[in-house]
User: What shape does this take?
Amino acid sequence: MIIHLIAAARPNFMKIAPLYHALKKEDWAKPIIVHTGQHYDLNMSDAFFKDLELPEPDIHLGIGSGSHAEQTGKVMIAYEKVLMEHRPDLVIVVGDVNSTMACTLSASKISYNPSNPINSSNSSNPTNPTNPINPINPINPINPNNPERPLIAHLEAGLRSFDRTMPEEINRIVTDSLVDILWTPSPDGDENLLREGISKENIECVGNIMIDSLEMLRNKIEEQAVFKEFDVNKNAYGLITLHRPSNVDSIEVLSSICDVFINISEKLPLIFPVHPRTRKNLENFGLINVLEKAKSIFLVEPINYIRFMNLVFNCRLAITDSGGIQEETTYLGIPCLTMRPNTERPITVDQGTNTLCTIDNLEAFVETIITERDTKLSVPELWDGHTAERIVQSIKTYMS
Ligand code: UD1
Assistant: This one.
């Protein structure tokens, strides 16, 4: 079975890695990594492949940055060609980035049958139709609904912030409405999908794949002491990540956030690996110097997975707008302050260590955490490091 694993941006890499390694062990599966190139910097992509012990991507679409429509359109066009040439049996998309939705759209509308009128436009014909990589598969026997196209599965299905101003929410809704198999990380995902009319048989709660990556690399993560490179002590610093357009694209918002960070840093030193989008805006808005001048704010380039997770393991608290960090801190029992009005991962608030906050109340939350030593620890069910195994089993049922 030829299985495409679609990887595009930084948070995708720790989702495909455990699955790639699990599928590699199966003699019936040929996992192929397709990198769309949405993230392309060494420290946003290659460093993660290395840490997660992934080989170079088999296919690289080299799409790069652009507006939402440009990025989505370019991925769709490039991936359509790859689909026609490789004819995968199964396409697995992960997370909620533009490439997740784009590859889902291409795979849903493709037909491997050269006589299907859908292929009448030259642009969708295979580059080499007489020699596809998967020649024994002009039709796809494992997709009973539509044997002329691959089966499509979404890993991390069902998450909803109910905030359609977030591009990721649009990507989630479109992706989940089209795919054949929906693997959710937690029961709230199942509930959201059922409410949207998705058939129960297509949904399976498999747990949180990010925890598989964390457990796979736990020893290497714990061997490090990255905080020692800064003027801070173990459990006595805050770790910041920030990249959502709603936080970093407006000068007013970003400058208020910087002011709050400076105030917080007087009580708790802050390590801040800066995302490329955020760095660009800090520079354009003339705010980078303001942060650099603060004695206890340590600005650094984006950090590779193992070293970054080591900073998470040893921090007093995290301040973030990332999705993944809300989950990792819940798993580790570390307080997390999420600078967003909503989250598509409510289980991290209900059961875990996550608190949603605003520019106005962030500082007060930090003070409470610094003075209260106890953190509640309740790990959601199936966040256990065995999600990839459950997915392999799930795929096997489609073959039987
Ligand atoms: C994307 C995802 C977001 C995810 C985030 C993780 C979408 C809509 N957004 O947002 O869901 O949480 O990745 O980081 O898919 N850039 C570089 N080098 C890189 C990558 C990006 O310099 O390797 C720059 C680009 O020039 C661009 C900016 O960063 O201007 C934003 O990149 P983009 O991929 O468009 O979105 P992210 O903000 O990273």
Notes: The chain has a mean pLDDT of 94. Residues 68-86 form the longest helix (19 residues).
